[in-house]
Amino acid sequence: MDEDKTTRVTVRNITDLARLAGVSPGTVSRALAGKSLVNTKTREKIEALAREHGFRPNQMASGLRRQKTGVIGVVIPLGHDSRQQISDSFFMTLLGHLADELTREGYDLMLRRVVPEDDADWLDRFIGSGMIDGVIVIGQSDQFDRIEDVADGYGPMVVWGNHTEGQRHCVVGTDNRLGGRLAAERLIAAGATRLAFLGDTTAMEFAARFAGAQDIASRMGLPPIITLPTHLSPDRASEEIAQHLAARASQIDGIFAATDTLAALCLTELRACGIAVPGDMKLAGFDDLPIARQTVPPLTTVRQDIAAGARGLVDLLLRRLAGEKTESLVLPPQLVVRATT
Questions:
Q1: What is the pTM (predicted TM-score) of this model?
Q2: Residues with Cβ < 8 Å from 119, sequence gap 6 or more?
Q3: Is 28:17 a contact under the CB 8 Å cutoff?
Q4: Distance in angstroms (rounded) separating the CA atoms of residues 62 and 68
Q5: Which of 144, 143, 73, 85 is nearest to 112 (CA)?
Q6: Is residue 97 within 8 Å of 307, Cβ to Cβ?
Q7: Which UniProt keywords apply (predicted)?
């Protein structure tokens, strides 16, 4: 006799129940919370499966509340660039500040780097592991919808990223569109009239920076900004930048790099091509990492207050752990003019 498959499945978390029901974890969260967004037939199926397997509504969240671990999970999704390294200067700077803030509040930090294409349930699996009290996601990558789904059923989560009107997950981050405007305004004020954006605009934060720069180019009556798609992994970025410059350098006189790391690599390649900065090419970055002061010449950039961002992430997460509903925190960017413009 064939044994009913459902009786052989162990349901430990929302991800397991979602797989059994053939729906997303977010749909399970909403169904068990009784939200009207889930149609009646689907909700009844999920509730029946939950009863059959002894899975109580909000079991995961209530379990975390009862059994504190003293650990906050920090996860970095790399859906947009699977070869990007956590040793990237931005990640290391933010992680350092986060570790300081969490330690001050009596928490340990558990770090995970994930490639979503290899694990579609990366976030549900982490929060359902029972090993953490709450989670900080660093960057939305190309995972906005996945994060939105989880936010519907899981409260103690805060995300470093770009804020979009109407989104459901709580974000801390810089006003990236405004930062892009500041960078473009500076490049244009320095004499650039044919701009390029260096970076991958599939990442939400980078897309907003590009859009802000394009706002200014359009307002000033300049040609559309050329995009130079570039990975963030150092082994690929330098080669791609060299290829972009070989093909496009004669068409542009100003480059806005999505990050200071990309700007520094670009500066090296410009020097190798014999292109003077800022004489022949104006260059601006984004972040104001320590490397921006160390390049030759020092880099004009848009500063985001990473230390304040880390404080905001931890403060909002602790408030959400206490049951509060919190608004997102959008930090103002600041233009830092140095010698590349």
A1: 0.80
A2: 125
A3: yes
A4: 10
A5: 73
A6: yes
A7: DNA-binding, Transcription, Transcription regulation
Cβ count near 201 (within 10 Å): 17
CATH of domain 5-57: 1.10.260.40
Q: Which of 70, 200, 215 is nearest to 139 (CA)?
A: 200
Q: Tell me where in the chain the CATH 3.40.50.2300 domain(s) lie.
A: 70-174+306-331, 176-303
Q: What share of the chain is helix, strand, coil (3-state, %, to 5)?
A: 45, 15, 40
What pLDDT tens digit does each residue of the chain (341 aa) get?
A: 344 444 456 777 777 788 888 887 777 777 776 665 678 888 888 888 888 887 765 444 444 444 588 999 999 998 766 667 778 889 999 999 999 999 999 999 999 998 887 777 889 888 888 899 999 999 998 889 889 988 988 999 999 999 999 999 999 999 999 999 999 999 999 999 999 999 999 889 999 999 999 999 999 999 999 999 998 887 789 999 999 999 999 999 999 999 999 999 999 999 999 999 999 999 999 999 999 999 999 999 999 999 999 999 999 999 999 999 999 999 999 999 999 99
Buried b (16+ CB within 10 A) or exposed e, 227-241: ebebbbbbeebbebb
**Domain 70-174+306-331: what homologous superfamily?**
Response regulator (3.40.50.2300)
* Every domain range in the chain assigned CATH 1.10.260.40: 5-57
Total residue count of the chain as it appears in this document? 341
